[in-house]
């Protein structure tokens, strides 16, 4: 069974690794702003998971599901019960080697003052060694902030419980009540992102 999930991790990584031109990002709500016409490369899905794979979340979870991720810096488990209450929580599924993920992290870092009251979780299924320096390299202003955490999804729970996105970075904004406010795949204009994170 352990080998099955290891092969699933590899399949999931391959699933997200293809890069195509164009913008096919999706949202749960009508968006008033669109990405500029000169869309950049987006990390997109190449094909559907194998039929024997565990059930994958085809729609974004309407409420924060139960999960168990691991803090990259300490290896300590992190679950739904560890999320501070009373504010929005944003989950960003990313790949450390994705240029769009790196760019979004940099823009969020430069605008930290605007998101300091939002729980911000960067989540990846990649090897923690690849994730360890992600913020130090691309989002220095986010390092060691009390509301920001980089989490390792060791058991591929995100794609089973939250959603299988089409592109990286994939953003999921949940309100203080734990209900989904909005989600989108792929890079968006930073003004839109900040507005969605904080409304």
UniProtKB/TrEMBL annotation:
Pfam families referenced in this protein's UniProt entry, alphabetically: AhpC-TSA (PF00578)
Signal peptide interval: 1-21
Keyword vocabulary terms for this entry: Oxidoreductase, Peroxidase, Signal
InterPro entries with a match to the protein in the record: AhpC/TSA, Thioredoxin-like_sf, Thioredoxin_domain, Thioredoxin_ResA/DsbE_sf
Known EC number: 1.11.1.24
Keyword Oxidoreductase among record annotations: yes
Domain of life: Bacteria
Region Disordered, residue ranges: 25-44
Keyword field contains Lipid metabolism: no
Residue stretches making up the Thioredoxin domain: 42-199
PANTHER family linked to this entry: THIOL:DISULFIDE INTERCHANGE PROTEIN DSBE, THIOREDOXIN-LIKE PROTEIN HI_1115
Protein name: Peroxiredoxin family protein
């Amino acid at each position: 069974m352990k080998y099955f999930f290891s092969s699933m991790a590899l399949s999931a990584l391959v699933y997200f690794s293809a890069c195509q031109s164009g913008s096919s990002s999706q949202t749960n709500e009508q968006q008033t702003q669109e990405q500029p016409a000169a869309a950049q490369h987006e990390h997109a899905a190449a094909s559907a998971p194998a039929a024997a794979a565990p059930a994958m979340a085809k729609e974004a979870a309407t409420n924060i599901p139960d999960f168990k991720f691991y803090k990259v810096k300490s290896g300590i488990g992190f679950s739904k019960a560890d999320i501070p209450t009373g504010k929005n929580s944003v989950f960003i599924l990313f790949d450390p080697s994705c240029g769009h993920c790196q760019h979004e992290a940099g823009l969020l870092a430069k605008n930290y003052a605007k998101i300091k009251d939002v729980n911000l979780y960067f989540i990846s299924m990649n090897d923690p060694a690849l994730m360890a320096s992600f913020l130090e390299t691309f989002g220095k202003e986010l390092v060691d902030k009390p509301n920001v955490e980089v989490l390792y999804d060791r058991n591929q729970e995100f794609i089973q419980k939250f959603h299988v996105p089409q592109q990286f970075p994939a953003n999921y904004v949940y309100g203080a009540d734990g209900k989904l406010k909005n989600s989108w795949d792929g890079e968006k204009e930073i003004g839109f992102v900040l507005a969605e994170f904080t409304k």
